[in-house]
Amino acid sequence: MPELPEVETVRRGLVPVLEGRVLSRVIQRRPDLRWPLPDRFAERLTGRRVSALRRRSKYLLLDLDGPAPAPETLIAHLGMSGRLLIGGAALGAFAHNAGAVGAHDHVVFETDDGARVTFNDARRFGAMDLWPTADLAAHRWLAGLGPEPLGPDFHAQALGAALAGRRTPIKAALLDQRTVAGLGNIYVCEALHRAGISPRRIADGIGPARVARLAQAIRETLEAAIAAGGSSLRDYRRADGELGYFQHEFRVYGRAGAPCPTPGCAGEVGRIVQSGRSSFYCGRCQR
DNA sequence: CTCAGCTCCTGCGGGC
DNA sequence: TGCCCGCAGGAGCTGA
After folding, report:
1. DSSP-assigned states of every residue in chain A
2. Could you read off the pLDDT of A138-161 as tens digits, one per residue?
3. Closest residue by C-alpha to C1' distance, nucleotide B9
4. Contacts of A68 (CB under 8 A, 6+ apart)
5. A180-199 residues near strand C (Cβ < 7 Å)
6. Exposed, middle or buried: residue A85 (CB in 10 Å: 0-12, 13-18, 19+)?
7. Could you read off the pLDDT of A29-57 as tens digits, one per residue?
8. How many angstroms separate the CA of A80 from the C1' of B14?
9. Engineered SS bond to A6: which of A2, A25, A125, A137, CB 3.0-4.6 Å?
10. Strand C contacted by A34 CB (< 7 A)
11. Average pLDDT, stretch A19-29?
12. How many angstroms separate the most distant Cα atoms in chain A?
């Protein structure tokens, strides 16, 4: 699934296509994604100008101009397999027919200058909602989120405070979006390796120096992943349809049996299951 | 309140 | 070749 770096990459790819444009037509091809789409969804978007394209955690935020109706924001989550593609999923295979509808193309946005953005989501764990911009922080998807890991509110002290009293493995604590927003299974594994912390370590027991190292590792991992355009394993594509390439820089994710990449470490990458999800780590240099 | 486990959905790769 | 199983980047819900 797209985690923060993938969503940020999609956002950057969509800015030149959507920002400042008017949505001239919106086609909704089914009533629901993970949950029902808002009432009169397409109708409420049509004719409105996209004033800004933002991101909060793994959510894309399309700000739509008011004043009538008041400014609203389209909140979009890509779930596990969601893509927002310039043109459409069918464009690559059927370039002679740019209007083709592909399997799992659920929503299509067309702009006043003739561009098209298609939301495609095979597993349909994605979601969209429309909400007053002024009240965005109160939306149920956003209200409980922890700090943005690349923003000013995320630092060693904040992470330490969020982990205090948590009697759960650090892996689970970092997947919990209330601790820090935007991490998923890949980047938690990668950041823990970079920080030299075992995914099994109880969150509450990690000392301040190691928490500081972890906060730094989270930032560095995400920045490197964004610089690479995210990670393409199965479903994820950038908005232009190209692949990200951070998967070639994975230290541990999906690399069970490989030698640990830490310089001087003779360990081997192992795989365990924690709360139903794979954790990849080196038992020798991650403690 | 916290936490582990299950759930939604589709597609793909491996093993037989 | 074909079928079955396990697994996949998320996160809401349930029940202990």
Report:
1. ---HHHHHHHHHHHHHHHTT-BEEEEEE-SSBSSSBPPTTHHHHHTT-BEEEEEEETTEEEEEE--SSS--EEEEEE-TTTEEEEES-GGGTTTTT-TTPPPTTEEEEEEETTS-EEEEEESS---EEEEEEGGGGGGSTTTTT----TTSTT-SHHHHHHHHTT--SBHHHHHHSTTTSSS--HHHHHHHHHHHT--TTSBGGG--HHHHHHHHHHHHHHHHHHHHTT---SSS---TTSPPP-GGGG-SSTT-TTSBP-STT---BEEEEEETTEEEEEETTT--
2. 999 999 999 999 999 999 999 999
3. A123
4. none
5. 184-186
6. buried
7. 999 999 999 999 999 999 999 999 999 99
8. 22
9. A2
10. yes
11. 97
12. 64
CA distance A11 to A84: 9
Measured CA A283 to C1' C11 distance, in angstroms: 28
Percentage, residues of chain A above pLDDT 90? 91
Structure-model confidence comparison of residues A233 and A90, the more confident one: A233
pLDDT level of residue A89 (50, 70, 90 thresholds): low
Q: Which amino acid is at A229?
A: G
Q: For residue A56, which of A151, A129, A188, A126 has the smallest C-alpha distance? A: A151
**Position A262: which residue type?**
T
